[in-house]
From TrEMBL:
Domain Glycosyl hydrolase family 31 C-terminal: 706-793
Family from the record: Belongs to the glycosyl hydrolase 31 family.
Keyword Hydrolase: yes
PROSITE patterns: GLYCOSYL_HYDROL_F31_1
Boundaries of every Glycoside hydrolase family 31 TIM barrel domain copy: 355-697
Domain of life: Eukaryota
Record bears the keyword Hydrolase: yes
Species, as recorded: Pheucticus melanocephalus
SUPFAM superfamilies: (Trans)glycosidases, Galactose mutarotase-like, Glycosyl hydrolase domain
Name of the protein this chain belongs to: GANC glucosidase
Domain annotation Glycoside hydrolase family 31 N-terminal: ranges: 71-292
Length: 928
C-alpha cells in the first residue's frame, strides 16, 4: 500500500497546470484547425436522396478524397431535428453513443417540398419549419416560419476522418508512397494520426485518426450558454484568441477559475438566446470534444438595397459554434425551442428528466474528509442537536473503508457500523415517540463514498470476483488495466458493460454490503475516472472496454454509467420501493436521471463562491437540477465571514452540503463563535422552512423538465439586461436570490428584472419601491432574497431537527400580489421517500390561486391522492391594498368560519392565522 503522503504528493503535482493539455497539445484539434473557414469540400449527391417515414437520407462526397458520407435528417416530435453523419461504408462500425437517449425518438415524416438543381427543400408536417439543403457546398439552413435560425456547415467546417487501415497494412500504391514521402516523421508526429505523445505518455491509436467536426451559425444570437462543466462565466466567451471550451472529464484538484479546460463532467448541450427565441444544439458524442465560439456582428442581409439604405444597415449579431470531437460519428440534435422552457422539455424528451430526490436529500448535508470514527460521527451528530441546527445527513469519506476497499469498513474506526446507523435512526424514533406520540420509522441518513477504482488484492472479494469474470477495463494489450489511485494499484470496472453494471448494482444488496442499512446512501467520486500518474490524471485513451471500444470513445460516459449502476443498486436493494440518492462527481447528458452532482474540489476563497453561481446555473440549464458546490470551499480554511456567506448562498441552491478537505481545519457550523453559529443556524433554518417550495420545484423538474435554479434570462427572456447576469438568480419562478460574494460588503447591487414586476422583501414582506438596478444595504445576518409579485410560495410554519421531523409541521403560504392583485402557486406533497407517488399515485398536487380577494385551494392533478393531517395554518398576503373588515374561510362544501387576521399598514402585509385548512381539500378564503 502506498502511504497517504505519497498519494497526496501525487495529487499535489496535479495542481501543476502542465499536467493538463492546452488545446494546441491535442492532436485532433490541431488537425481540425488546419481546415479553415471557407467553401466546404463536401457536395450533396442529389441523386442519392431517399425519403422514408423516418427520415431523409442522402450522400455527400468530399471533392478531394472522394470519401462518401451518409447523411440522415430526422424530424422528431416536439420541434427537434436530428442530423446524423457517418461514413457510407466505414472500414468497421464507428461508435454511436448508447444509453444516453431514453428511447429511440419518435420521428415525424418530412416532406420534400422542393427539389431543383442544387437545392433540396424539406418541410415539417405542419410546414412551420423548412430545411434548405444546398448541394454545393453542402449546407443545411433551418428556417422557422421564414426566419433563418441556424445554418449547418455554414463556414465549411464539416470534418470527417474516415477509418483507414494502419499504414503497415497498406499496399504500397503510387499514391501512398507519395503521401509517405511528403509527410516527414515530424509532421506525422505533429498530426498524431496513429499515436500521440503527451509528456511521458503514449497514446497508441489502433484505429488511427477518427475525428469529426462541424460548424453551426446561429443567426441573430449573441448570447450563448451551456456546455458545462467549466469554471467560467455564465455567458460563453469568444474563443477566437484562446483555448476552446473543452469537454473532457478530468480530476483537477485545485482547479483554477476562468478556465475553459474540462473538469469532472460534460454535457454537450449549448443554448443560444435572443429576445424572441431560444435554440439549442445537443452534440451527442462522448469522446473528447472541443467547442469554439465566435460571436460577431454582421451587416443585415437584405437583397437589393439602395446605397442610402445600405448606409443605414443594421448590424445583426451572429454566433458561430464549431464542435470538434476525437471520435464517433456526427449525431446532433437541433432543438428549436422556441422558448427556453421548450428547450428544457426537448432535451428531457431525449435524455430524461431530473430524478425526484428523496426529501431528506434536499435537507442539509454535513460532510468532511473525514469523520474519523463512530465516536466522531456521534459527536458531530450530537453537535447539531446541541446547537439546534437542522440537518439530515452525515457523510463518510474514503477513510471509513478498510484500506480504500469500498463496500467495507475500517475495523478499528467503525467497529459496528450497523449500530452506529441504529443510533442515528434511534435518535429520530425517540424524538418521534416523545414529541408526537406516534411510532414511525424515521431515521437520519448516512452517505458513504464508493469510488470506482478497485484495489488490486486477490483477497478482496470485489476484486477477485471482477477479475474472475473479466469485468475490468483492459489495457491495449488485453490485460486488466491497472492504475494508481487511493488504494494503490487499482483496476476499474467496465461500467459500459451492462453485466458489469448489474453485478455492481448487486453489491449494494443489504446482505452483500455488510454493515449497510436502509439509511445508507452513496457518493461516487473519482469517476472521470481519476487515475493518478495517468495522462492528465485519467485513464489512457487506448484502454479497451466492452465490445472492444477504446476508452477514447466512452471517456465522458464513465461516471454517468457508474452513477447509473449505483442508483440501480440502491433501488434494487429495496425491491424497487425506495428512491435512491447518489451523488456523482463525473457526469454526462442524462445524469439527472440518477441523482445529484457537485462541482468538485473548489477552494475556500471568495472568488470560488462567486463562480459557483454561474457554474450551477449552467449545470441546471443542461438538465441537471440537483447540483451544488461544497459549502465553505473544499480546499483551505474559509474565514468565518466567507463560511457564513457560503451557507447563506447554499441554503438557496439545490444541493446543500458543507464539505472540507483532509488538511483543512474542522468547520462544523458551531466552531466560529456564538454569533456566526446563530447566523448559520438561521440560514439552514430558512432552507428547511422553504422545503415545501423546493420539493415542489423538484417535482416540476421531474415532470416538466423545469430547472430548479434559473438564470434570470430564462424567466425574463425579453429583457436584454438580464442576459449576462450571473451574480443573482431565480429559484423557481418566485424567488430572486442575490448571494453576497464580497468580503465585508455593506451593500449589493440587485437587478430587479422586468419593469412591470413587483418584488417583495422575502423576510420583511415589504414591497420594493424602486425598480431596475438598486443598491440594497446588507448585514452579515442574511443575503437579499425577494419574492416576485404574482406568486404563492408554500413553506412550513417552523423548522425542526430534520426533514423527517418536520413531516407534521403545518404549512404557511406567502401570497405575493402582482399589479392586478393576483397570485398563483403550487404545492406538491408525497411520502418523500418511496416510488408510491409513481406506482400508486400517492401524492397531492395542489394549486393556490388568489383572485378578486379570494384565495382558493384546488387540485392540479386529480389522479393523485395522498393523506396528510398537515394543515395550512397561516397565510400571509403581501401587497394587500387596505385593512380588510372581514375574512372568512370555508371548505368548498362546508361551513364558513371567521378568520383572525392582522394587517400591517407599514408593509401592507395581511396575516391570517389559525386556519387549520386541510392541504388535501378544496377551500376558499374570502377577504372583504
Ligand atoms: O482528491 O475522497 O472531490 O470531495 O473529499 C481527493 C476524498 C479525493 C475528491 C473529492 C472530495 C473528496 C476527496 N476526493
Amino acid at each position: 500500500t502506498l502511504p497517504l503522503s505519497a498519494l497526496s504528493s501525487v495529487q499535489d503535482e496535479a495542481v501543476d497546470k502542465s499536467n493538463f493539455k492546452k488545446c494546441n497539445q491535442i492532436a485532433f484539434y490541431r488537425r481540425q484547425k488546419l481546415l479553415r473557414p471557407g467553401k466546404s469540400l463536401y457536395r450533396v449527391l442529389l441523386d442519392s436522396v431517399t425519403l422514408s417515414d423516418e427520415n431523409v437520407k442522402f450522400q455527400i462526397i468530399h471533392e478531394e478524397n472522394k470519401v462518401l458520407l451518409q447523411v440522415e435528417i430526422y424530424e422528431i416530435e416536439g420541434n427537434i431535428f436530428r442530423l446524423k453523419i457517418d461514413e457510407a461504408s466505414p472500414l468497421r462500425p464507428r461508435y454511436k453513443v448508447p444509453d444516453v437517449l431514453i428511447k429511440e425518438p419518435t420521428t415525424q415524416r418530412l416532406l420534400i417540398s422542393h427539389k431543383e438543381a442544387g437545392i433540396l427543400v424539406l418541410s415539417s408536417v405542419n410546414e412551420d419549419y423548412k430545411l434548405r439543403v444546398t448541394a454545393n457546398p453542402f449546407q443545411v439552413e433551418l428556417q422557422s416560419k421564414g426566419e433563418t435560425v441556424m445554418t449547418v456547415n455554414s463556414n465549411g467546417l464539416l470534418y470527417f476522418e474516415h477509418l483507414q487501415p494502419p499504414p503497415s497494412d497498406r499496399k504500397p500504391t503510387a499514391q501512398n508512397e507519395e503521401a509517405a514521402s511528403d509527410s516527414s516523421k515530424e509532421k506525422q508526429e505533429d498530426l498524431g494520426l496513429w499515436q500521440e505523445k503527451f509528456g511521458s505518455f503514449l497514446d497508441i491509436k489502433a484505429h488511427g485518426p477518427t475525428s469529426v467536426g462541424m460548424d453551426f451559425s446561429l443567426h441573430g444570437y449573441d448570447h450563448v450558454y451551456g456546455i458545462p462543466q467549466h469554471t467560467e462565466t455564465l455567458l460563453l466567451k469568444n474563443t477566437s484568441d484562446g483555448d476552446a471550451y473543452r469537454l473532457y472529464n478530468l480530476d483537477i484538484f485545485g482547479h483554477k477559475i476562468h478556465d475553459k479546460i474540462g473538469i469532472y463532467g460534460s454535457v454537450p448541450l449549448l443554448l443560444a438566446h435572443k429576445p424572441n427565441r431560444t435554440s439549442g444544439i445537443f452534440w451527442l458524442n462522448s469522446s473528447e470534444t472541443l467547442v469554439d465560439i465566435s460571436t460577431k456582428a454582421i451587416a443585415e442581409h437584405t437583397p437589393s438595397r439602395s446605397a442610402a439604405e445600405t448606409a443605414k444597415q443594421r448590424a445583426v449579431p451572429l454566433t458561430d459554434v464549431r464542435w470538434m470531437s476525437e471520435s464517433g460519428i456526427i449525431d446532433v440534435f437541433l432543438l428549436m425551442g422556441p422558448t427556453a422552457f421548450d428547450i428544457f422539455k426537448q432535451f428531457a424528451q431525449l435524455t430524461g428528466t431530473q430524478a425526484l430526490p428523496p426529501l431528506f436529500s434536499l435537507g442539509y448535508h454535513q460532510c468532511r474528509w473525514n469523520y474519523e470514527d463512530e465516536q466522531d460521527v456521534k459527536a458531530v451528530d450530537a453537535g447539531f442537536d446541541a446547537h439546534d441546527i437542522p440537518y439530515d445527513v452525515i457523510w463518510l469519506d474514503i477513510e471509513h473503508t478498510d484500506g480504500k476497499r469500498y463496500f467495507t469498513w475500517d475495523k478499528k474506526k467503525f467497529q459496528n457500523p450497523r449500530k452506529m446507523q441504529e443510533h442515528l435512526r434511534k435518535k429520530k424514533t425517540q424524538a418521534q415517540l416523545i414529541l408526537i406520540m406516534c411510532f414511525i420509522f424515521l431515521p437520519w441518513q448516512l452517505v458513504v463514498i464508493v469510488d470506482p477504482h478497485i484495489k488490486v488484492d486477490p483477497s478482496y472479494i470485489l476484486y477477485a470476483q471482477a477479475k474472475e469474470k473479466g469485468y475490468f477495463v483492459k489495457d491495449r494489450n488485453g490485460q486488466d488495466f491497472e492504475g494508481i489511485c487511493w488504494p494503490g494499484s487499482s483496476c476499474y470496472p467496465d461500467f459500459t458493460n451492462p453485466d458489469v453494471r448489474k453485478w455492481y448494482a448487486d453489491q449494494f444488496a443489504f446482505k452483500t454490503y455488510k454493515g449497510s442499512t436502509n439509511i445508507l446512501f452513496v457518493w461516487n467520486d473519482m469517476n472521470e475516472p481519476s487515475v493518478f500518474k495517468g495522462a492528465e490524471l485519467t485513464m489512457q485513451k487506448d484502454a479497451v472496454h466492452y465490445n472492444n471500444w477504446e476508452h477514447r470513445e466512452v471517456h465522458n460516459l464513465y461516471g454517468f454509467y457508474q452513477q447509473m449502476a449505483t442508483a440501480e443498486g440502491l433501488i434494487r436493494r429495496s425491491s424497487g420501493k425506495e428512491r435512491p440518492f447518489v451523488l456523482t462527481r463525473s457526469f454526462f447528458a442524462g445524469s439527472q436521471k440518477y441523482g445529484a452532482v457537485w462541482t468538485g474540489d473548489n477552494t475556500a476563497e471568495w472568488s470560488y463562491l462567486k463562480i459557483s453561481i454561474p457554474m450551477l446555473l449552467t449545470i441546471n440549464m443542461a438538465g441537471i437540477s440537483f447540483c451544488g458546490a461544497d459549502v465553505g470551499g473544499f480546499i483551505g480554511d474559509p474565514e468565518p465571514e466567507l463560511l457564513v456567506r457560503w451557507y447563506q448562498a447554499g441554503a438557496y441552491q439545490p444541493f446543500f452540503r458543507g464539505h472540507s478537505n483532509m488538511e483543512s481545519k474542522r468547520r462544523e457550523p458551531w466552531l466560529f463563535g456564538e454569533k456566526n453559529t446563530q447566523i448559520i443556524r438561521r440560514a439552514i433554518t430558512e432552507r428547511y422552512v422553504l422545503l415545501p417550495y423546493l420539493y415542489t420545484l423538484f417535482y416540476r423538474a421531474h415532470t416538466a423538465a423545469e430547472p430548479v435554479m434559473r438564470s434570470l434570462w430564462i424567466e425574463f427572456p425579453g429583457k436584454v439586461e438580464t442576459f449576462d447576469v450571473e451574480n443573482e438568480y431565480m429559484l423557481g419562478n418566485a424567488l430572486l436570490v442575490h448571494p453576497v460574494t464580497e468580503k465585508e460588503a455593506k451593500t449589493v447591487t440587485v437587478l430587479f428584472p422586468g419593469s412591470e414586476e413587483i418584488w417583495y422583501d422575502f423576510r420583511k414582506f415589504k414591497r420594493m419601491e424602486d425598480a431596475g438596478t438598486v443598491k440594497i444595504p446588507v448585514t452579515l445576518e442574511n443575503i437579499p432574497v425577494f419574492q416576485r409579485g404574482g406568486t404563492v410560495i408554500p413553506l412550513k410554519t417552523s423548522a425542526g431537527k430534520s426533514t423527517e421531523w418536520m413531516i407534521d409541521i403545518s404549512y404557511e403560504l406567502h401570497v405575493a400580489l402582482d399589479a392586478e392583485a393576483c397570485a398563483i402557486g403550487e404545492l406538491y406533497v408525497d411520502d418523500g421517500h418511496s416510488f408510491q407517488y409513481l406506482h400508486k399515485k400517492q401524492f397531492l398536487y395542489r394549486k393556490f390561486t388568489f383572485h378578486k380577494n379570494i384565495l382558493s385551494s384546488s387540485c392540479v392533478d386529480e389522479s393523485g391522492q395522498y393523506h396528510t393531517t398537515c394543515a395550512v395554518e397561516r397565510v400571509i398576503i403581501l401587497g394587500f391594498g387596505k385593512q380588510p373588515t372581514f375574512v372568512t374561510a370555508s371548505a368548498k362544501d362546508g361551513k364558513k368560519k371567521e378568520v383572525v387576521f392582522t394587517y400591517d399598514t407599514k408593509t401592507s402585509a395581511l396575516t391570517l392565522e389559525n386556519l387549520a385548512l386541510s392541504v388535501d381539500a378544496d377551500w376558499e378564503i374570502c377577504i372583504s
